[in-house]
Specification:
There is one protein chain. By secondary structure, the protein is α+β, with helices and mostly antiparallel strands. The chain has a single domain, classed as BirA Bifunctional Protein, domain 2 (2-Layer Sandwich). The protein has helices at about 15-35, 85-95, 140-165, 180-185, 190-205, 260-270, 280-285, 300-305, 320-330, and strands at about 40, 45-50, 65, 75-80, 100-110, 120-130, 175-180, 205-210, 230-240, 245-255, 290-295. The strands form 2 sheets. An 8-stranded mixed beta sheet has the order 1-5-6-11-10-9-8-7. It has a 3-stranded antiparallel beta sheet with strand order 2-4-3, with no helix packed on it. A hairpin with a 4-residue loop joins β9 (about 230-240) and β10 (about 245-255). About 40% of the residues are buried.
């Protein structure tokens, strides 16, 4: 059982007060976030057809929860891992123009997750996507969007402090940018997660860029599906999280593949067969807009702002009984 118990942990808020705080954070953040990035809220699916190629393949080894429906006899229906690809199709379908975008409340099941303080079988996040010009597919555009998201999170720190001054987490004032290769060069003897912990403890908030390609060591910093993020133009937003003494990933985001980087990355991963799927064909044929997008963890944001020790304190999921019992003994009350 992977479980960290902070010393003398005190959640401060009762279960009902916590529920009130969760609603306040979620309602306030999505309103401010949508305004900052000019995003409209839309409805999104819980499941998609396997043959569409729209599901997120994550690291390539996780298996989606799937089932069959009578009217789709020759096709499996998959519960989404995320909406990374679906959003780009939706932007075209709904007629969004350049500098316009959407966000949605995404709920997913990741049955292969190893549950611990930060990971759950249930995933809840704000999935967002925004149309950009082809010439805006660059690092400057990526960094500008990261800074906007960071600014909204900082604003939420002040909002939560005003309502719950005795629990709010104090966040750093700026985000530090570094590539995965630069991070490996800086800490060559550490594993990827250890590097993240080291750099986050130093700067407080870090955006690690260019994740997916093999580094000079012959290893990847982390796995990424080859068919949505451009691995040269993506990254993870991490905060140093004092209660657990580790880096806490709040968002994974990036500029999406174009017709060239899609083919290049599929070749690297020996996944060229996906080029026959409708979504991938639409990218190759330049039928979809160029976009930037990502996901922001809803429960993780609540954890960060409320100084909680376990993600189960801010979301309802299922946990091993051993974990439930150990948490309860240490004043960690899982929902």
């Amino acid at each position: 059982m992977n479980l960290i118990i902070p010393e003398k942990y005190d959640p401060v808020l009762s279960l009902r007060q916590t529920q009130e705080a969760i609603k306040y954070i979620r309602d306030t953040f999505q309103k401010e976030f949508g305004r900052a990035l000019m995003l409209e809220r839309i409805s999104a699916p819980l499941f998609v057809q396997k043959s569409s190629g729209l599901n997120d393949n994550l690291n390539g080894v996780e298996k989606p929860v799937s089932f069959q429906i009578s009217c789709f006899e020759n096709d499996d229906i998959e519960v989404v891992h995320s909406l990374a690809k679906w959003k780009r199709m939706a932007l075209k379908k709904y007629g969004f123009g350049v500098r316009e975008g959407l966000y949605t409340n995404m709920n997913a099941i990741r049955k292969d997750e190893e549950v611990d303080n930060l990971h759950s079988y249930y995933v809840d996040q704000w999935d967002w996507e925004r149309v950009i010009e082809k010439e805006d597919r660059n690092i400057t555009t990526l960094k500008n969007h990261v800074k906007k998201i960071f600014k909204v999170i900082k604003h939420m720190e002040h909002e939560v402090w005003y309502k719950y001054p005795h629990v709010v987490n104090r966040l750093p004032d700026r985000v530090h940018f570094i590539t995965a290769q630069e991070l490996e060069n800086q800490y060559p003897d550490l594993a990827a997660k250890e590097r993240e912990n080291k750099i986050c403890k130093e700067f407080g908030c870090v955006f690690v860029m260019q994740i997916g390609n093999v580094l000079q060591s012959g290893q990847k910093h982390d796995g990424r599906a080859p068919d949505y993020d451009d691995w040269k133009l993506n990254g993870d937003l991490l905060f140093w999280y004092e209660p657990l003494q580790c880096a806490l990933e709040i968002s994974s985001m990036g500029i999406r593949v174009d017709e060239n980087s899609l083919v290049e990355q599929l070749k690297k991963e020996n996944c060229e067969d996906r080029l026959n799927l409708p979504y991938h064909q639409a990218i190759v044929n330049k039928e979809l807009p160029y976009t930037i997008g990502g996901g922001i963890g809803q429960s993780r944001l609540c954890m960060l702002l409320l100084n909680r020790a376990h993600i189960g304190e801010v979301q309802a999921s299922i946990w091993p009984q051993e974990m439930i019992d150990e948490c309860e003994k240490n004043n960690i009350h899982l929902l």
